[in-house]
Amino acid sequence: MGRIALVPVLLAACATPSGQLEHVAKDWCLTIRASQVLPVYPPSEDVEPGDVFLVDTSLADQARVYEEKGFLPLDQLVTRLRGLPYDAFYRDGYFENPFGNVPHERPSAGTSPSAPKVAFPAYSFQVDRSQGLKLALPLSGVPVGLGLLGSSQARGSVTIRDASTYAIDGETLARKLYAWWNADEDVRDTFGAIARDTGRPVYLRAVTRVFLARGVTVSLVSLDSAGAGVDAGVPPQVELQKLAMEQPDLAPKAAAAYRDALATIGGPPGGSVRLVQASTRAVTLDEDFERPLVLGYLGFDVRIFPDGTISAPVPSFATVAGGSTALENVKAMSFGEDSNTALLERFLEDPANYEKLTAWLAETGRDINPSDLLHGAAYSRERADAVAHFGLR
Amino acid sequence: MAFPKPIKDIPRDRVHAVVKTMLMDKDVANVNCREATDGTYTVTPRPRKPAST
User: What is the ipTM of this complex?
Assistant: First the structure.
């Protein structure tokens, strides 16, 4: 009987508007980003230093996507650079360490992680059932805690527990990346062709550092003036500690009621939710991940040029933080003209035609500046297209 | 629209044409021209500073 009574409480907690659901990824990622870490969404176990992703959003689009979604999609894993020298990297920098060559011992649920620790700040949020969560998080502990509180308004905080990090230095990884790139002509041809055919900048994003966590602690404090809890089955609204002191014989029953409620709610897939503390107006839950999950990363980007070469590394965070044009400036393109250049130069003598040419480039999905178009050795085909389009002769 | 890229290996008599086209971009404040040992030039556009608020 008691378990049935909990259902409406939970449904109310989970019945968020559709717009709210769309904010889950962004809210979570902005939360992680606030710690100067690029978020991995959804949090996943299988991201390591040395992973190289193909990213096909232009620099301007990256900033826009980051603003809209709050994270940079890691679209396609291209390769995993192996044999990273963790032992050399950590030799002088981290106590006694068991780091050898890859594969190092990954942090696991049953053992203390051997990776260096990292601390994240606690993040606060507020929930009102009539409006949904003001900070949406992909954590089971939040709706579970709300269900236990039986409250319509609550303030909460999330603490990322037992977080660790490990990394390889960017210089070593960049050398590995260039070695991989230069060793295989097929790789250069394939990605060079992608860069040419898409007509948009293409980047390789290499991960140098990852941040893992083994769990989170969710604390919720009810903001209701009078707590709920009149329904049968809602856990007893008593402070367990006080009860244990004053009425020790009742405390086990109260604790059992909470455990029953948690059992009814169930835990998240691949993890578990554990009650740490409960009182009339507050509840604290530990949510453990079955295995440590990567919440964020740091890395660098290299741009793939149509001629099959790649640029110098630029930190990913610098790319998204301020719309840096560093990537555009890291490599000069070769000068190369043909007869169409002269036609286009005459065309541009009328300033209005500069706007027309710019608009045409944008309409056709070409992320090319008119200056590059006219004088770049790699753009003879695009020049011919422009001359044909505008009927120049 | 993409910011203009630096262009290298420009013959001396074509530098003015490259500079002229680069400066048509309203985001380009000025350009740097550097002569290489082989007598060609590299022209690098410099962006405008964002307006202070």
Answer: 0.94
